Amino acid sequence: MLYLAENKIIVVVGIAGVGKTTLVKKLAEIIEAHNKSVNVTNFGTIMFEVAKENGLQNRDELRKLPISEQKKLQKNTAEKLSKINDDVIIIDTHAFIRTLEGFNPGLPYHVLQIIEPTHFIIVTAKTEEIYNRRMRDETRSRDKVSITTIKKELDIQSAMMSACAILSGSPLIQVQNNEGKLEEAANKIIKAIGV
Ligand code: AMP
Ligand code: MG
Predict the structure, then answer these.
(1) Which residue has its alpha carbon closest to ligand 1 atom 21?
(2) CA 163, CA 112: separation in Å to the nearest integer?
């Protein structure tokens, strides 16, 4: 039996401060070095591009929109992502978004059905590292939080991602992106996705 190589659609999630964006860049470099075409997209950036047309000024305002609006933007973004055709598609996003109405899933069932992820990656780090990285980030209007809040966010993230794996039937791995261990974290992911 002949197995055709199919696109790998890798959804990478992580709470603010885990170093997700840096890790995703590293992953793309490694995949390109394997002569595979790779596309890296930040889900929030696509959502923001559409929302900007409707007057939104800052990406950190996205999570303050009514859920009904965020839902439409998520669907629209998922549809755009589903049209990308590269060997490896990496989607940089979140398991949940802290909204005024509660923790909103970043990957609700309707989005999963459009994107059809093949792998889920949770990027995490030591709680203290996450806390320190968040404190240092002046570029974003992020909510300032405590260590306890970070621990809670990590719990909610695992619950949300278990549901994603079950609904999609696709595997999930959790990778530690500890200080100075970027390369190690990237290689673990490459091994899991089989590039
Ligand atoms: P980021 O730059 O990755 O922190 O994303 C910026 C913003 O985009 C987030 O704070 C959310 O408001 C929004 N966003 C990103 N991914 C999703 C998603 N999957 N579903 C809903 N909103 C998202
Ligand atoms: Mg980021």
Answers:
(1) 106
(2) 11
Residue pair 139/21 in contact by the 8 Å Cβ criterion? no
C-beta 96 within 6 A of ligand 1: no
Q: What is the mean pLDDT for each group of 10 consecutive residues in the chain (195 residues)? A: 78 96 96 97 97 94 97 98 97 97 97 98 96 83 81 97 98 96 97 94
Supply the residue whose CA is at minimum distance from atom 20 of ligand 1: 106
Q: Which fold has domain 8-193?
A: Rossmann fold (3.40.50)
User: Measured from the CB, is residue 133 less than 6 Å from ligand 1?
Assistant: no
**Distance (Å) from CA 182 to ligand 1 centroid:** 23
Ligand 1: centre distance to CA 96 (Å): 8
Query: For the chain, which residues make up each domain, given as ranges?
Result: 8-193
